[in-house]
Protein 1
Amino acid sequence: MVTLSTLQKMKEQQQKIAMLTCYEASLATLLENEGVDILLIGDSLGMTVQGYSSTLPVTLADMCYHTTCVARGSHNALILADLPFGSYQQSKEQAFSAASQVMASGAHMVKLEGGHYMVETTQFLQQRGIPVCAHLGLTPQSVNAFGGYKIQGKNEAAAKQLLADAKAHEEAGAALVLMECVPSSLAKEVTEALTCPTIGIGAGIYCDGQVLVLHDMLGIYAGKSPKFSKNFMLGQSSIGQAIKAYVMAVKNNEFPSLEHSY
Ligand code: KIV
């Protein structure tokens, strides 16, 4: 059974953490049997499963439903669930209410998007028994404020802010820090500065673990896949083989290569 202490030990022993999104029971069983450590019920399900053009329309009820499905199919992996847009930004009490519902649905940890302005919420949840993963860099729920899905932390001031945000979340009790779409040199600096594990998506090879959106890495998402993703189905004859290839590539430090990094 993968727990917070397993992840912490993996960081200390420099063993890479393999994480994938997962939204349902059958794939949950398959993914963990192929060695995926963390199953993320990502609000990317709004795009991959529900057909929306962003994650914004995903509701708390949707997240609870898919978390329940994944939890029924999973017995070993750590289950991480996103708090959807609008369910946690208003106040820390609102965040606790949303987080307690996804935890009751079977999650072991919740993920929230945002830097320094979410640190108090991280602390509030952590002190009340809810492990938190802080999602920094490109936070897709803010796509309209960013003006698109763009690389973050590129200039010195933005990089400094991201590093400070990561440290502040860790001090507040975050169990994981996830960085999306940031230069690998910045993700390396953050990973070295933190005691808790980091997970990267489009953040280079130096993070303690990697995550991809399942539908992107299986090549079944009809929309445009990002530069940092890779189709692991190519050359494989089953979904299980593709998952295994991804897990091995992460564990052996072969993914992401420069072509999938910034
Ligand atoms: O929702 C999701 O799938 C995510 C990943 C992009 C990390 O948050």
Protein 2
Amino acid sequence: MIITIDGPAASGKGTIARRVAGHYKLPHLDTGLLYRGVAVRLLDRGHALDDVKAAIAAAREFDIASLDAERLRERSIGEAASRVAVFPEVRAALLTLQKDFAHRPEGAVLDGRDTGTVIAPEADVKIFVTASAEMRAERRFRELTAKGEKMTLEAVLAAIRERDRRDSERAIAPLKAAPDAVLLDTTDLDIEAAFRAALSIVEVARAGRGRG
Ligand code: C5P
């Protein structure tokens, strides 16, 4: 079974994907980490984030094992990732790795922006997770404050809106729900309720395919 979970930053898709993967004992790929990894490589080598040649080279030699997971999760790296993710050649260089992961014999859960539209359009279940920008900013703000980062809620909201704009307006593989994705709005749900809602979407899809 292939399950794709797409959605904007701080929608809850990553946590939902991890928990759904744990529930069905499926391998999970957070595809955002790939773009984050490319961005980190560029920064570490002193290249500008709009240096397309350097970005393509970093994507071609991509090796997730060599990257420091803690650092990849930093907020600034997420924003840098959305800048390298606009280059078609960078996306192309990361495509096979993601498609191969989706087609592991045991199945897979992938989360990101284009996993249901580009990486695995043939997925058995597609979920598109949304939440209002205000609620996503509030969640991110709480996370950052807990980590001791100093940022105002307004600045977090502005950064979220900017990332949404960049991810939705890019010409290639923009953030958008696949026509056959089920929408899951987590604005008024806590993580437990969101996970339960995702499970029931998967179960309904499985039953519909005769695997229930
Ligand atoms: O999901 P995460 O915040 O880790 O993603 C970082 C950035 O990587 C996103 O803002 C987006 O620009 C890019 N990305 C993408 N396609 C994906 C996953 C992430 O373009 N499938």
Protein 3
Amino acid sequence: MLNKVKVAILISGRGSNMQKLIEACENPDFPAEIIVVGSNNLNALGLEYAKSKSIKTFVLDHKNFSNYQNSREEFDKALHQEITKHNVEIICLAGFMRLLSKWFVDKWHNKIINIHPSLLPDFKGANAVEDALKAGAKISGCTTHFVSLEMDAGPIIMQSQVLIDKNDDKDILSQKILAQEHEIYPLTLKKVCTKILEN
Ligand code: GRF
């Protein structure tokens, strides 16, 4: 049987990118397997889908860490503990709405992948689609990248362009970009895992 890289996916919400990654991994020739899906939000819709595919899930509510002096790092240490239970090699962030601490990013250097709804380095941050529209951009898209300490700034893996029509509003453009995200995230995971298996 093909050797596969063990992957964790972290989500906070709907999890449509997670779903595409899970679907891609169902192909016996795909070089990755999703071992566990984690969320900081008990009500993340994507958790149900992962469970329906018999993938292990866990929830770590960040609010339970608010009393710690260094709450972000304490949360990340608990996250690391959960993930390492499963011999995970790569982490995919798929709408995971948490900034990761230096401690965590250092531990998982070049092993965390994120997807962002703009052509980075343009329009970093949480309002990328609105910002592209406000700026009057004619082209936007999505980017997969390795996670570094600076938000939305790590080495780029893949990008896909989307043309912005003058009638596009936030919902329309988000949908157009999301359709491209669903294409490039599985391709990105395949590229990264193929390289890992070659080494
Ligand atoms: C996507 O737009 C992704 O680019 C951003 O968060 C959104 C997640 O959507 N990081 P989903 O939960 O994968 O549907």
